[in-house]
Amino acid sequence: MPRLDLRADDGMSTAEYAIGTIAAAAFAALLYAVVTGDSVLSALTSLIERAISVDF
What we know:
Blueprint: H1 14-35, H2 38-52
Transmembrane segments: 17-35
Keywords: Membrane, Transmembrane, Transmembrane helix
Organism: Prauserella oleivorans
């Protein structure tokens, strides 16, 4: 008589997909908020201005 392996995990369930999708969307929103913030824009502007004004 064949034995069934009930512990096999062939992939994610629908609930795991939902949690993963929500986590990815939250991370994307957080990353967008950080990148579009004033501090990041200010830091990038400062970096570019210093790079342009370097004397050779």
